[in-house]
Specification:
Helix 3 runs antiparallel to helix 8 and helix 7 runs antiparallel to helix 8. By secondary structure, the chain is α/β, with parallel strands linked by helices. It has a domain of 148 residues. Strands 2-1-3-4 form a 4-stranded mixed beta sheet. The chain is globular, with a radius of gyration of 21 Å. InterPro entries: Mit_KHE1. It holds the Pfam family Mit_KHE1. It comes from Mycena metata. One of its GO terms (cellular component) is mitochondrial inner membrane.
């Protein structure tokens, strides 16, 4: 596979397998992979000053990013509230609900499409062919180039219809729960939850469709990334599980310089994989 320098693309994807084979001779396991999306945002374009009364107060990054940042700040504040308060209990409930969301969904919606390389109507980048290539980095001791590419293709093909159904379902429940807002004093938590799940499915679907567009135009190029091999080189001959340990995933996060929010999602994915493997093993007994 081609080797693409990191500085050549405005976007790169890194595959972090959460389960590895016990030995080279063991049968291939179903791949469970966490993807890190890194985007080098283009330099900001200085907009001409406008004297229009309405546009002068708008945030430079747009209302969408401003609202998202404000919501994250508010949610973080809930978590820092004193234990036992309504805000802190709401934060704990929200975190437990987040733990129940498939990590594949959270992983997809983490892709910031506002800074991603644009796609035109033909699914191709309007930039040069060299800059349009997106490296898909993988640890060569665990994955091959074709494996990493095939998994990404299968992932988006599976998730797009799933998020279509999820979006329609949660919009339906949001409509049903909307009349509860007429009840005074009591916050309409069911409506807010349904609206949040609808938004989550919509955002994950958009990201999956975007990645599918990159794949269909052959712009994603598998690229070996040997520095990640140290995460997977432990001796598993005596290991009880093939799930990559939490400590090694934390090492991967440091190697890739993941942001705290992304590291948190990576570790949440690890917990889900541990639970899935445990349930699978119980079924086979």
């Amino acid at each position: 596979m081609a080797i693409i320098p990191r500085y050549m693309g405005s976007m790169r994807i890194t595959a972090l397998p959460l389960i590895r084979p016990v030995s080279a001779a063991s049968p291939t396991r179903k791949l469970q992979i966490f993807y890190s999306y890194k985007i080098i945002a283009p330099p900001p374009i200085k907009k001409a000053s406008s004297q229009h009364v309405f546009t002068r107060w708008l945030p430079e990054d747009g209302l969408g990013k401003w609202a998202s940042h404000k919501a994250n700040q508010t949610w973080t504040g809930f978590g820092m509230a004193p234990a036992g308060t309504l805000k802190h209990r709401a934060f704990q409930l929200g975190e437990s609900l987040m733990d129940g969301v498939d990590f594949e969904e959270s992983n997809l919606k983490a892709l910031d499409l506002s800074n991603a390389p644009p796609l035109n109507s033909n699914g191709k980048n309007v930039e040069t062919a060299t800059n349009a290539q997106v490296p898909l980095e993988y640890p060569p001791s665990v994955l091959s180039g074709p494996q990493s590419l095939d998994h990404l293709k299968a992932l988006v093909e599976e998730r797009i219809p799933l998020h279509n159904r999820g979006l329609a379902t949660w919009i339906f429940f949001a409509i049903l729960s909307a009349p509860l807002k007429l009840i005074p004093i009591i916050p309409n938590f069911p409506f807010y939850f349904c609206a949040w799940r609808s938004w989550s499915h919509w955002k994950a679907r958009r990201s999956a469709q975007y990645i599918q567009g990159l794949l269909q135009s052959n712009r994603i190029v598998p690229t070996a990334f040997p520095p990640l091999d140290c995460v997977y080189d432990a001796d598993l001959s005596d290991a009880k599980s093939a799930v990559v340990p939490r400590e090694e995933l934390e090492l991967a996060a440091r190697i890739l310089t993941l942001k705290p929010e992304e590291t948190k999602e990576l570790l949440r994915a690890h917990e889900q994989i541990v639970s899935r493997v445990s349930k699978s093993e119980k079924k086979t007994l």
